[in-house]
Known about the structure:
The protein is of the alpha/beta class. The protein has helices at residues 17-30, 50-63, 99-113, 134-147, 203-219, 262-278, 286-298, 312-324, and strands at 6-9, 34-37, 66-68, 76-80, 88-92, 118-124, 152-158, 167-173, 183-184, 191-199, 224-231, 236-244, 250-255, 303-307, 329-332, 339-343. The protein has 8 helices and 16 strands.
Amino acid sequence: xxxxxxxxxxxxxxxxxxILRTSLTLSLLTGRPFQLYNIRAGRSKPGLQPQHxxxxxxxxEIGQAKLRGASRGSSDLTFEPGEVTAGNYRFDIxxxxxxxxxxxxxxxxxxxxxxxxxxxxxxGGTHVSTSxxxxxxxxxxxxxxxxxxxxxxxxxxxxxxxxxxxxxxxADVQPCNRLAHARFHERGxxxxxxxxxxxxxxxxxxxxxxxxxxxxxxxxDLQAEIREDSWEGGPGTVLGIVVNTTPAxxxxxxxxxxxKPAERVxxxxxxxxxxxxxxxxxxxxxxxxxxxxLPLALADGSSEYTVAEVxxxxxxxxxxxxxxxxxxxxxxxxxxxxxxxxxx
Length: 344
């Protein structure tokens, strides 16, 4: 190995799969190999699970990497990157694991190191709990990347919900010479839109979700046009509400589950919207804050943005990034409160 092996404790900070994904992304971009131990040690199912393992294998395939410990349940992984190659790729998680997290692992390496456009097909979950759903990627994440000069297009071929999975997302990633720095200090004026969708279930569920969301928003003097959709595939339901604002529109969503009333799905999405609106008007929502720090750490020039909430995901991601990149990154603000991220 030409580079010193970085040793990273996977149980540090937030202790989840984000440590793995950020390490994979930065290893591909910096050429630095790493060993990650205690992977997800505090989780109910510790070690590499299918969606984490697919992130590893996807990163290894696009970056011609050497692997040790890349097996289900493994708590120790060594990753030695090679050269990132643009091309056509297909990654099938085999479960309802989040396709979004696999894509977020490999998108920046393909954009920044690829010499030509790449096409990526991902099969698995498109709308699963505790992960960004397809519509968040397409609405919020992709918009932020475009502001930083990364161009990609996304298409949901079919939805995939827990536990069946089987959804498909196609992504086209354009090469990018350099990332732009950014300063996001204030949230702009807001307006609302949304959708209520069912897949393989009665359309009345979508109507109930939409009706409840409109009612809850109107109770708070907010108006939203919420369309009702019926998708092939599933079974599953989702309600998404978009807060259209600057610097980027923000999508919040609720997911259906067996025995879960449609009204509760709507309440979950609306509760997130109300919390966001009632908080101090920071520029960047809490879900995007940790996703934005990585590309900005790779950009030329200094960046700064206010965040709606400082989360363990954000502070953990900053700590991992510092291991790979010699860059001053600070986060002012206590966990659970508004904060400011600065990248020198």
